[in-house]
Amino acid sequence: MKQSMTLIPTLREVPADADVKSHQLLLKAGFIRQNASGIYSFLPLGKRVLQKIESIVREEMDGAGAVELLMPALQQAELWQESGRWYTYGPELMRLRDRNDREFALGATHEEVITSLVRDEVKSYKKLPLTLYQIQTKFRDEKRPRFGLLRGREFIMKDAYSFHSSQESLDLIYDKLFQAYSNIFSRCGLNFRAVIADSGAMGGKDTHEFMVLSEIGEDTIAYSDTSKYAANIEMAPVNADYVKSDEALQGLEKVLTENQKSIEDVSSFLNVSSEKCIKSLLFKVDDQFVLVLVRGDHEVNDIKLKNLFEAGSVEMADPHETKTVLSCPVGSLGPIGIQNVQIVADQAIKAIVNGVCGANEEHYHYVNVNPERDFEVKQYADLRFIKEGDISPDGQGKIVFAKGIEVGHVFKLGTRYSEAMNATYLDENGKAQPMIMGCYGIGVSRTLAAVAEQFNDENGLVWPAKIAPFDLHLIAINMKDEIQSSFASELYDQLKQNRFDVLFDDRQERPGVKFADSDLIGLPIRITVGKRASEGIVEVKIRNTGEMLEVSKEELMATLTNLMKNL
Ligand code: ATP
Ligand code: MG
Known about the structure:
Rossmann fold, 9-stranded mixed sheet, alpha+beta, BirA Bifunctional Protein, domain 2, single chain, binds magnesium ion, 567 residues, YbaK protein, binds adenosine-5'-triphosphate, 29% strand, 5-stranded mixed sheet
């Protein structure tokens, strides 16, 4: 591709509204342009990277036995009403009406469409299992579109759905696709972890998210420093052994703690460690209020709370609700004397001896508090977030945290959609059974941005060879110099004949501009035709190591083939 003929509008300044590296560099290097908030055009370079990622995705999906199809982005409301999600998906689903006033949605995901398709076309167990996938634009009216392609409102997803007549068959395909996902992200060059994730209210039990490790990630991953264990922090169970001290129980006492509200305030004011403090928080679990107790140095994990109650929603009660239900301000809550709401506590609470808690009265706390003697707990459970330094849930090593960007998600759906939408097959005995399903997503455009986020330096992008928009950047320093320009053109033809993907900077620009643009775009290898053109010698530079060599025209093809092999 000749640079003079394509569109690569590089920028010298960092765009003001781009606050993460990948977003800044993709704009600066001319890969994407914003159209509206969370909506982007992929310019020729961006489109080429997308295509390369898509080819890897297709190869791996096909290899795992999945088959590609393409479903409509415009989806009739009736399907979403059948599954019930028309009413529960919320404002993220973009809805519209046609000229006849019929309601539609722009596809945020395709469980409904595919379930209705397979329901109509597959009747017998003999046609199962069946795994179908597509690569398509998705629409989600995100509350906070941000970080460029990482959280868009229109983005490209690979979504796959599998249909089965048995749990074993689902388990098998799930493992195959899990492996395909690992291959895809490895081939993209990414440093990632597959983590155990929350299956939420969707019913299924096994679910994993593929997380690219990055400071700007929105999720926290808890992983073992020695084993392969990795989970979304929300999901990591705590296996701690809390040992009760043999300290003698003291008499309960109410003390004045004027203006001491936070755990830190109270523990330093009363001179007790935060491990002896009981943090009491009022939650609204579906429609009921629940007082949740955790140790002062721990945090309530609302996902664990939600799962304990098998609830649809869990949120903290606001100050007004707290006042109404427990007649006291949020900072003074405690379990003693509470009658009208049930109390659940994290396991660590059981081991507290002579602790401290709020007295349900402003400016007062209780000291020498002892669970069971002074208040009753309906249930003890694992309700806190795991902490760095805790023992890994698999018993091997200690937990460390990292931030991650979710690029993929595999999920055992079970019969959530097939039951709601009546997608059944006839089994060997001619009996109708709901199909068992799995779903599997990859954010293709998000993956592109995640690679840009992991692979860059102070001069620009540094694409891994397998998904770089081109393999080579051919530059002639001075296109007005007859020898340089004809030598460069000759090389360009030769490189193309030898099946290299090459971008030829044939522009009449100053060398400084050409080099700066080239570094910004970040192709794996640069070939510069300069002063030694008359001798038939070019300079070859590797983008990610900065290594440079001078190579003669005769040796160039062999040298490049060798270099590409090792990139
Ligand atoms: P998130 O928690 O980031 O909102 P999600 O759980 O809503 O993601 P899924 O519904 O599982 O995501 O979608 C499958 C994949 O699509 C995700 O793993 C992610 O890579 C990608 N994805 C989801 N939302 C967006 C978005 N707004 N922009 C770009 N990619 C997205
Ligand atoms: Mg989302």
